[in-house]
Amino acid sequence: MIQEKGKPIVSKKIIKILGDDFVEHTDDIAVEEPLQISIGVLKVGSPINNKDISITMRTPGHDRDLAIGFLFTEGIIMASHQIKRVILDENSVNVQLNDSENLDLSKLERHVYTSSSCGVCGKASIEAIKTVCRIPLSSPIFQIEKNLIKSFPSILQQEQNIFNNTGGIHAAALFNIQGELIAMREDVGRHNALDKIIGQVLTEDLLPLDQHLLFLSGRASFELVQKAAMAGIHFIMAVGAPSSLAVEMALEHDITLIGFLNKTRYNIYTGSNRIKI
Fold it and tell me: Per-residue confidence of the chain (277 residues) as pLDDT tens digits?
């Protein structure tokens, strides 16, 4: 297997079974590699005291946004001005914060390893998941045409370059309420794809995202709804099913939650008032 540094796709020789025939073929595969996320606070006249936060399995690309988004959705940072600089290496990101920052990491109860399939798996307890959001949140009033919603899967499919080549990756996409695509990220981890978007918009000082729509290529899990709520998102659509806890979280945070979305149908689980029926 030949892999270029930092590339999201590798090529590998495989054998395909087509009927009774064996066919040699070169297949594209989505890359999965560990990313070490650490933070440090720049104190004048003192050495940087770095602390390892997490190792997450991710697809290389937009690692800076991933680390920043992760730190935000974990409640460690809340604004871009807290960040002095970000140091990137092949499989590590060190986010260095300003001298004035006093961090309380006592509530960050996450094991060192986090699987790409589920960010919650690394939590020490269910109580540690309930991150407190510190940005001002609103309860926006807007309505989306019901047929516009059915157009989002086709838009996402056209933009998913890695998925179209490999078939083995998740995506998160952000739209404005007019239905225009604002950002899209792909990753082997559902939570990573969303953190990459949140990290991008945090850096651009666009939070809260209370006038935006989030589309997820897979199921709507509790942690994805929680991350969206942290960013002020009140409209979530997913190709797959929501979990019961995701529905409860959506109700708690006044989020419109849609599941089983395709070009012909979808289910509305919460917040139907934001959809023109």
Answer: 334 457 888 888 888 888 878 888 888 888 889 999 999 887 665 656 788 888 999 999 999 999 999 999 988 888 999 999 999 988 999 999 987 666 666 555 554 444 444 555 444 434 444 555 666 667 889 999 999 999 999 998 888 887 777 777 899 999 999 999 999 999 999 999 999 999 999 999 999 999 999 999 999 999 899 999 999 999 999 999 999 999 998 998 999 999 999 999 999 999 999 999 8
Spatial distance between the Cα atoms of 125 and 120, rounded to a whole number of angstroms: 9
Domain for residue 26, yes or no? no
Is 118 tagged catalytic?
Answer: yes
Q: Could you tell me if 156 and 266 lie in one domain?
A: yes
Of 70, 102, 129, the residue that ends a domain is 129
Helix (H, G, I), strand (E, B) or coil at 267: strand
Residues 166 and 256 in one domain: yes
In a domain, 6, yes or no: no
144-145 and 275-276 as β-strands: parallel, antiparallel, unpaired?
Answer: parallel
Does 171 share its domain with 117? no
Q: CA-to-CA distance for 213 and 255, rounded, in angstroms? A: 10
Query: Helices then strands (H, E): number in the chain?
Result: 7, 15
190 and 237 inside one domain: yes
ω into 208 cis (within 30 of 0): yes
Q: Spot the catalytic one: 118, 129, 133, 182.
A: 118
Prediction pTM value: 0.85
Determine the angle formed by the axes of helices 222-230 and 244-252, rounding to 10 degrees: 20
The residues near 122 (Cβ < 8 Å, ≥ 6 apart) are 54, 110, 111, 112, 113, 114, 115
